[in-house]
Structure formats: structure tokens, C-alpha cells
User: What shape does this take?
Amino acid sequence: MKTLVKRSTVLISTAAIFVACATSCSSASSATSNCGPPTNCASEDAGRDAVGSDGESSSDGGIACPSGKGPAMASLPASNGNSFCIDTTEVTVEHYAAFIAASAGNTIGQPAECSWNMSFGPDTTNFGCSASTNDVVQHPHDPVRCVDWCDARAYCQWAGKHLCGAVGGSPVAPGDLADVTKSEWYSACTSQGKYPYEYGTGFSSGRCVDSSYAGVGSQGPVAVGTARQCHSPDSPFATVFDMVGNVSEWVDSCSTATGQTDICPTLGFDFKTNQATCQFDMPPQKPLRFYADTTIGFRCCAH
Assistant: This one.
């Protein structure tokens, strides 16, 4: 786990790279920036043509989704007859770099349970995290990792979204994480309760980024959208990628709201798992609110 006192200076060199690259991307009109491959700076990697890019949101007769910051969003039906939006991929290193540049070290506006959080910068010292984990030049389209629950929440708020929780935007109780009528994330992953795996009823080894994924094994995540078959077979859920495998994801669900040691489950499992499902991931060393390591990332929702 991270030390109880949030790091405030360890990210200085990484933040400098983040700011420089985010500035480059914001001013570039095309493929010349070193922030990403030869496309729009704000686009995704291999999955970009399927899920869109920043500034675009897919909608199948649902609500209009926020756009302009982070992954494109998909509008999905909720069991109550309404709709909600969810990021079509995990938030990437490049997306998070833009947030770091925009926040400029300002951490005000956090809820009381995050009052200890003095920096939104990714951890660079604990549980395998280092400055290279979120190198925006080398890994712009990988999911951002080594961020704690409060960092993820702050990013989603900045993007005009919220950390995925209950349908409607409030936190979801841990006991309701596998209830499609209450959990945005679980409803999206299971195609509203139809499938136990994001892609269908039966497990398919290596279809998503798990320990059997070709060329990766359990070595680390890959650029979002790379696993082109890791999505639902059903529209509009088919526009959402990587909900199982790659990295497990923070959601707006914690045991209590007292502070940094609240237990906050993650969902979807990660690249080290040999059979990733849509169920919540509660390892023996339960993830706490201030926990950050190389297997946890996040995506945002909106309503």
C-alpha cells in the first residue's frame, strides 16, 4: 500500500513530462506530437476507430454524454428505463496527464474522506509503481495506474463525469455491486445482467487482457482497446471495451466514508488474472481508499 501520508513531491519529474506533453497535445492539430501515435493527440490506440476519440460520444437513442475530456462515452440503458453514460475505455496515461496539467497541484474540493490526499499525481514508489509506469511518452494509451480512489474521483469530477457508482450518480453500496438494477459499472459489463463475462456466457481464455493474453501474459496491461474482442456482442454495450482484464477499476463504492483506510472494492480483475469476470475483485489484501498499485485503474460514468 501507499504510505498513509500522500506523496507530495515524488512526482516532480513525472509531472513535468505530463505537463509538457499535455500542453503539446492541446496545441497540436494532428499527428506530429510525441504524445501518441500518428492520429489526433486525444485519440485512443488500437480501439480508437471502434470507440471514438475525445470530443465524441456514442449514443444509441439514449442521453447525450459529456465529451471533450477523457475517453469517448457510450450511452447505455439502465434497468429503470433511464440511461447513463460510461467511458468506452479505461482512462489512459495521456488523459490523466491532461488532468494533472490542468489541476496544477490544486487539490481543493475533495470530500472529507479524501482530505488527506495532498497530490493527484500517480504513486511512484509503492507496489511496483515507478515514474516509468505512467510515462506519457512511452505509454500514452495504456490505462493510467498507481492512482488511488481519491485521485480517480477527482479526475472524473474534473472531466464533468463521476466515478461509476449507482445508477443516477450516487455511491453504490458494496453489497449492490453485482446488482444490475443498482450498479452502473456492473450493468455495463454484463449487458444489463445478460452475461457473466463482458463478451458472453462462457469463459474464453485470452480474449481480454488476462494472464493468457497473447504477447503479454501477466507482464502488464496493454493500450486500451487493443483486445478487439473484449466487448459485449450486443448493441449498445458492444462499444465499451476492457471492462474485464487489463486493469481492475475503482468504482464509487466503499465500506465507510471515514478516510484513507476505508475498504473500496475494485471491479473487473486485471492482467494477472487467469479468468477475469464482471464480478468485483476483493483480494486477500483488500484495496483501501489510499491504495495504489500497478493493477488498478478506472473509468468514469455520467448521467
